[in-house]
Amino acid sequence: MTNVPVIAIDGPSGVGKGTVSAKIARALNWHFLDSGVLYRAFVWLKGQNASALQSLQEVESIANELSIEFVWDFKTESYQVNRKSKEISSLLRSEAVSQGASQLASNPWVRQALISNQRAFRKPPGLVADGRDMGTVIFPDAFCKFYLTATPAVRAMRRHKQLKEMGLNVNLTELEKSIEERDFRDMHRSVAPLKRAENAILVDTTHQSVQEVYEGMMHSITGKNL
Ligand code: C5P
């Protein structure tokens, strides 16, 4: 562990944690980690055979090739995902990659191999990390932890809107089913299941705008006296 401060933001799909985490990272001028991107990039690199992994060594060598960077894009006001200086953000957002990543994420070798990739993002002056196990497993010593929730219907609608904006047309009912499946898998896997860390602040985003969620979280962060 290091002295570099971490803000850990966890929760299921579609709660808005990606958007609000990026906003907090920018406001503080800290580093940013969207850990789901690592699982998605793994699937994208390895193709549909991600579940046919043979050994921890094989998984580690793929993890070493990931080389993911988050670069702020002033035009879209969001982080773009770069791999070896090439933008790959839109290649990672399809439903096939989402489902593949969720299946891959229950593989203990994959979770083990990705620990050091994730911890490598912890650099001065600080890190804002979002995912499913940031506060419980990857950065248990985070000085500030949040667990975001929202009703399943609202989460599906938000994700639908996000995909539409990216030019991906997905049926809302199917999307709801897919999100439910992913959440169930994330919460019931044997390694690092999605759960609220004991000391995480619970934030229900169902009836709040991004700005309201952001302001509430910043209030808690600044109250912690960095
Ligand atoms: O957050 P995102 O939807 O991009 O994550 C894709 C999948 O990766 C999730 O459904 C989850 O199964 C997995 N994941 C995880 N642990 C993390 C981040 C993502 O298991 N810290």
What top-tier CATH class fits best? Alpha Beta
The whole-angstrom Rg is 16 Å
Class computed from helices, strands and strand pairing: alpha/beta
Under the CATH scheme, the architecture is 3-Layer(aba) Sandwich
Q: What is the N-to-C succession of helices and strands? A: EHEHHEEEHHEHEHHEH
Shape field: globular
Report the uncertain regions. none
As a percent range, the share of strand residues is: 15-25%
Terminal residue distance? 17 Å
Strands ordered across the widest β-sheet: 2-6-1-7-8
Query: How can the largest sheet be summarized?
Result: 5 strands, parallel
Number of self-contained structural domains = 1
Mean pLDDT: 93
Task: Supply the CATH superfamily name.
Answer: P-loop containing nucleotide triphosphate hydrolases
Number of helices: 9
- Give helix % range: 40-55%
Describe the structure.
- The protein is of the alpha/beta class.
- The chain has a single domain, classed as 3-Layer(aba) Sandwich (Rossmann fold), CATH 3.40.50.
- The protein contains nine helices and eight strands.
- A hairpin with a 2-residue loop joins strand 4 and strand 5.
- Helix 1 packs across helix 9, helix 3 packs parallel to helix 5 and helix 7 packs across helix 8.
- Bound molecules: cytidine-5'-monophosphate.
- The site of cytidine-5'-monophosphate has 14 residues, from helix 2, helix 4 and helix 8.
